[in-house]
Design goal:
Layout (H helix, E strand, L loop, with lengths): L1 E3 L22 H9 L4 E5 L14 E7 L5 E6 L7 H4 L7 H11 L4 H9 L2 E5 L8 E3 L5 E6 L13 E5 H7 L6 E4 L7 E4 L21 E2 L5
Parallel strand pairs: 7-9
Antiparallel strand pairs: 1-2, 2-3, 3-4, 5-7, 5-8, 6-7, 9-10, 10-11
């Protein structure tokens, strides 16, 4: 919750999700309006838990408090970025899934998602030789399908699954240019060049890697 004078906020990233219709006024907004008449009182996305004033992109919208401390006009924030929770995405199943959701919605970084993945054990489907099964991507590059918890797994009883620390698994994927597709069916899958996986003590990617940085994608299931 924050209050400010009447000047309009600027900056942030515009996204299509905007709560255009006023929803029931939260009690915290009413309390803030009484304490700050003549101000705009904003409400932050529930994912924003820091004590400092939220950035414009984390504010859903604002109510105008009148001179008597009552709640009046509401205006939506066109710069608002909805979090995974606000979008109705499933609860994260594990730390990697949580970090990927935050990165996809702008509430976290890709570096943090990579760091979480680098410390994780991942499941995979075994090929006939017992090694991780590798598919072919649209661009012809090899792609290993991985998952970080059972809800994301390909659970057919006809398939043999294994689990390894992701760094150890990466050593089995010797072909240059191999991509890791992590939790392909999740709300926020990760698509990571294996060379970009951080090494031990390196939270920002492998030393000297010339591969592009990985990216996340997000969708509403």
């Amino acid at each position: 919750m924050h209050t400010r004078p009447e000047e309009r906020q600027e900056g942030g990233q515009q996204v299509p999700f905007t709560p255009a219709e006023p929803f029931p006024v939260p009690e915290a907004v009413k309390d803030a309006a009484r304490l700050a008449p003549g101000h705009w009182v904003g409400i932050a996305d529930p994912e924003w838990t820091e004590e400092r004033t939220p950035p414009p992109w984390a504010v859903l919208g604002e109510w105008r408090s009148d001179e008597d401390g009552g709640v009046g006009e509401y205006r939506a924030n066109p710069d608002y970025r909805p979090s995974a929770r606000a979008l109705g995405w499933p609860e994260p199943t594990d730390p990697v899934d949580a970090a990927a959701q935050r990165a996809a919605t702008g509430y976290g970084s890709v570096d943090a998602a990579l760091a979480a993945l680098a410390e994780a054990d991942v499941g995979f489907v075994r090929g006939p030789d017992g090694r991780p099964l590798v598919a072919v991507g649209r661009d012809g590059a090899p792609v290993a399908l991985l998952f970080t918890s059972p809800p994301h797994a390909f659970m057919s009883p006809a398939l043999d699954h294994g689990t390894l620390p992701v760094r150890e698994l990466a050593r089995f994927l010797g072909e240059p240019g191999t991509q890791l597709l992590v939790n392909a069916g999740a709300a926020a899958p990760l698509f990571v060049p294996v060379e970009s996986l951080p090494g031990p003590g390196d939270a920002t990617g492998g030393t000297g890697s010339t591969e592009p940085w990985p990216h996340t994608t997000g969708r509403t299931p």
